Fold:
Amino acid sequence: MNTKWIQTLSAALALCLPLAAQADPRQDEAMLKLASASGCLSCHGIDAPKPGPDGLPPVGPTWADVAAQYAGKPGAADFLTRVVLEGSNPYSSHWKGKVSGLAMPPNAVAITERDARSLVHWILAMKR
Ligand code: HEC
Structure:
């Protein structure tokens, strides 16, 4: 599937239909597909925590929690794009005690910087 084409198309649609900009990000099929194809959804839930193995807390934070945590913080999108590409530091977890994953592995093998950035913007829009 050509995701670039889908992105271009959705960008064009968003320009034509100002209402599309206010659509619920959770309904964005193209972004859901990108997140799933990039492996993100094996560790992250969107609203409902994805249960960890053997009754442990979820592996990673839900994206609604990430959006709430970083809401209004300047530079959050740039910062989180780096974390997604390079992975997080197990010695300074940002979600200590809330998740069972010790750290997020680097995703740069699975995703381009551009796609990582679009995912992060999408995640940050999920604040309730
Ligand atoms: C192998 C499991 C795993 C995969 C795959 C994964 N993550 Fe994570 N992610 C985690 C864990 C664990 C954390 C919590 C890191 C911490 O404690 O600082 C996390 C944290 C995050 C955060 C918040 C970072 C912070 O510093 O607060 C974002 C945003 C995120 N992930 C997005 C993504 C995206 C986008 C993808 C797909 C490209 C992805 N994750 C794939 C496990 C994963």
Observations:
- Residues 38-40, 42-44, 59-61, 66, 80, 83-84, 88, 93-95, 99, 101, 103-105, 107, 111, 119-120, 123 surround heme C (CB under 6 Å).
